[in-house]
Amino acid sequence: MCWFNKGKLFSKMSRFEEALESYDKAVELDSSDADNWFDKGFTLAKIGRYEEALLCYDEALELDPRHVAVWFNKGKILCYLKRFEESLNCFDKVISVFPEDGLAWTYKGHVLTRMGKFEEALKCFDKL
């Protein structure tokens, strides 16, 4: 827990390399904690290391398939990488757990818009 907390603090201080070192140690000590993987992935995404972040998110989801924060952030990265179908799947996972999550509906609508599926996007925005 100590390394995890240090990682959080370093991340808040925008000291991302130190945060990553802390999360690496947290994962080394407890690789069965989905939050260790999630926060490492989140930090990697903050510094633009998206493919590595996705690998961490996949590890987290292997441990906890209903971790909605992981699905949400994975969806955002996949959208940024223009992997739209995969991104939609992630936001659908969030919505299946929290059907009233306006942010998930917003991002899903955004992805559909980028895909040129405007009518479907409008349906998402109607959920807000």
Strand content: under 5%
Query: N-to-C terminal Cα separation, in Å?
Result: 37 Å
The overall number of domains is 2
The CATH architecture of the largest domain is Alpha Horseshoe
List low-confidence stretches: none
Name the average pLDDT.
96
Tell the overall outline. Answer: elongated
Quickly count the helices: 8
Write the layout of secondary structure elements.
Elements: H1 2-12, H2 16-29, H3 34-46, H4 50-63, H5 68-80, H6 84-97, H7 102-114, H8 118-126
Core attributes:
about 130 residues; mainly alpha; Serine Threonine Protein Phosphatase 5, Tetratricopeptide repeat; 2 domains; about 80% helix; elongated
What would your notes on this structure say?
- The protein is mostly helical and 128 residues long.
- It folds into 2 domains: 1-65, Serine Threonine Protein Phosphatase 5, Tetratricopeptide repeat (Alpha Horseshoe), CATH 1.25.40.10; 83-128, Alpha Horseshoe (Serine Threonine Protein Phosphatase 5, Tetratricopeptide repeat), CATH 1.25.40.10.
- It has 8 helices and no strands.
- The chain has helices at 2-12, 16-29, 34-46, 50-63, 68-80, 84-97, 102-114, 118-126.
- Helix 2 packs antiparallel against helix 3, helix 5 (68-80) packs antiparallel against helix 6 (84-97) and helix 6 (84-97) runs antiparallel to helix 7 (102-114).
- The longest helix is centred in the first third of the chain and has 14 residues, at 16-29.
- It is elongated, with a radius of gyration of 16 Å.
- The termini are far apart.
- The model has no long low-confidence stretch (mean pLDDT 96).
